[in-house]
Write a structure and sequence with these properties.
Elements lengths: L1 H16 L17 H23 L2 E3 L1 H11 L1 H23 L3 E18 L4 E20 L4 E16 L4 E18 L4 H67 L5 H36 L7 E3 L12 H11 L1 H21 L5 E14 L10 E11 L7 H67 L5 H36 L1 E2 L4 E2 L11
Parallel strand pairs: 1-6
Antiparallel strand pairs: 2-3, 3-4, 4-5, 5-7, 7-8, 9-10
Length: 527
């Protein structure tokens, strides 16, 4: 009951406030009293159709805002974009975590080996047997500023060894503590570059998610008004069929009474059958459009819905230069093209490192101790030092590096042209939308004037019909013309609303409410 009251309140407010739409026509003039009472009966019949339809099929009422919100939660496109965003976010989190200290413990609780080996020093085969228990604790810290790595490790173990060469057994504890630095030279910082690439990938996925949201909003709005139009067409055709059916019964009674010619009854029957066919076609189209709408919303196809739209229109003042400036400042596609350029620059850095001259320096210092007793391991410690410096010098690559570098530079230039082309396309689109808005306002005024003229013409012919100066077929033609003009006005208003939404999406500025639309993008918020 609450839902039915909601329908009544919304539609009463709709008919009261909107000057662009009236209810479908009521019964033929033989049942109409004219004046306010007749109009009230028409509106009442229109509301009755909605209430009966809603209560019989348990329809779900949807406004435009509710449909957009539903799509943002359930749309397949939004879900895929959200999953891509989560993937890039987790990759960035993992990369930043990998730059922190890495603690590792490796345990070898028990290891036994028995082997026969050939000893070249003494020239004979010997038996070797080892029993080992050991563990290694290590800390590795990447150095992002230099692309180096510093690590601290401690290897502690117990070993029982036997060799047939000396025929004795050696048992004891050992510990090896070492500090190691590994630093690449004459090359780019791979750690910084990898991190920057993942930050850009995350930012790009956020931009893509925001773009998808705007695209879904536009798609859902178009679907919504398409459902509304087919819904109104269906209601109008049902009312038209009821009118023609009633007209046929009236004319049939006149023919049976000898008051009208049979030709008029045949034409009325043909009009009734044509009207029924139109109603059935509109029903099929309405159901098909609803299914497409439900798929876009991400709701079950079995759920029955009905849309409630506000088709009143208020002209919005749009400044062309401001629209272009807002678009160039706010459009996320431009930032995406800039990200592509940065990635192209990274690709040149990587390509330039192909077959590069590079070096590596490694320094390691350690302290080793061994004794049969645990407390005496470092009675006679041994200092271990390792220093190595290596160079990788390419001699000849047959022009591979130069060719790949030229290809990377060409790709970068293409991305730069894409940015310029995107800017031009944005300006072009905004200018076209601006012109369309002005033209659509003119079309609305023309459609409103046509509707007023058709309404006056219908009322004049209605009076002629009451006086017997006009046939029902002629009145039906006037009725059809009025219906077409009303539908044309609704379509013109919907086109204006869609184009105004398009301007908002293209500029990320709502000229209707005079506020910016700024998605929350925080690519550096992940620590």
């Amino acid at each position: 009951m609450r839902n039915i009251k909601t329908v009544l309140v919304r539609f009463r407010r709709f008919f009261k406030e909107s000057n662009t739409f009236t209810a479908p026509f009521g019964s033929l003039p033989s049942r109409c009293s004219g004046g306010p009472a007749g109009k009230a009966g028409i509106v009442g019949g229109f509301l009755f159709f909605f209430i009966i339809s809603f209560s019989a099929h348990a329809q779900r009422l949807l406004t435009l805002d509710q449909a957009v919100e539903e799509a943002m939660n359930n749309s397949p496109d939004i879900i895929q974009a959200r999953l891509s965003l989560d993937q890039n976010k987790e990759n960035l989190i993992a990369q930043r975590a990998s730059l922190k200290s890495n603690f590792r413990l490796n345990l070898q609780p028990y290891s036994f080996t028995r082997d026969r080996r050939y000893n070249e020093d003494i020239g004979r085969w010997i038996d070797v047997q080892n029993t080992v228990t050991a563990g290694t604790f290590s800390i590795e810290q990447p150095i992002i500023w230099t692309d180096g790595t510093i690590s601290l490790s401690n290897h502690f173990g117990w070993q029982d060894s036997y060799s047939s060469n000396s025929d004795n057994t050696t048992r004891g504890f050992s510990n090896n503590l070492s500090l190691k630095l590994q630093q690449p030279l004459f090359t780019y910082n791979r750690q910084k570059l990898d991190l920057k690439e993942l930050e850009l990938a995350y930012e790009n996925s956020q931009l893509n998610y925001a773009v998808r949201e705007l695209a879904v909003e536009k798609q859902i709005t178009q679907f919504f008004y398409q459902v509304y139009q087919t819904q109104m067409n269906l209601m109008t055709s049902k009312e038209d069929y009821a009118n023609r059916k009633q007209s046929y019964e009236i004319i049939k009674n006149k023919v049976d009474a000898g008051l009208s010619a049979k030709e008029e009854m045949y034409q009325a029957e043909l009009d009734m059958m044509s009207s029924k066919s139109t109603m059935q076609n509109n029903q099929v189209e309405f159901e098909n459009v609803k299914d497409n709408f439900k798929q876009a919303l991400g709701i079950p196809l079995e759920e029955d819905i009905m849309v409630i739209a506000d088709v009143s229109v208020t002209p919005v003042d749009v400044d062309l230069q401001k629209a272009i400036d807002y678009a160039l400042q706010n459009r996320m596609e431009l930032r995406q093209r800039q990200i592509d350029i940065e990635k192209g620059q990274f690709e040149i850095i990587k390509t330039n490192a192909l077959n590069e001259f590079r070096g590596d320096i490694g320094v390691e210092v350690g302290l080793f101790g061994m004794n049969e007793k645990l407390g005496n391991m470092y009675e006679k410690p041994t200092d271990n030092q390792t220093v190595n410096f290596t160079l990788d010098i390419p001699l000849w690559d047959w022009g591979e590096k130069k060719a790949r570098l030229r290809a990377a530079e060409a790709s970068l230039m293409s991305k730069e042209y894409n940015l310029k082309d995107e800017e031009v396309n944005i300006k072009l689109t905004v200018r076209q939308i601006y012109r369309n808005l002005g033209n659509l306002l003119t079309q609305i005024e023309i459609a409103r004037k046509n509707e007023e003229n058709a309404k006056l013409t219908y009322e004049i012919n209605l009076e002629k019909y009451r006086n017997g100066d006009l046939t029902s077929m002629d009145l039906n033609l006037q009725q059809n013309q009025l219906t077409q003009k009303k539908n044309a006005l609704i379509n013109a208003i919907i086109n204006y609303k869609l184009e105004l939404l398009n301007m908002k999406l293209q500029t990320l500025y709502d000229f209707e409410n005079k506020e910016l639309i700024t998605p929350a993008l925080e690519p550096n918020s992940i620590k």
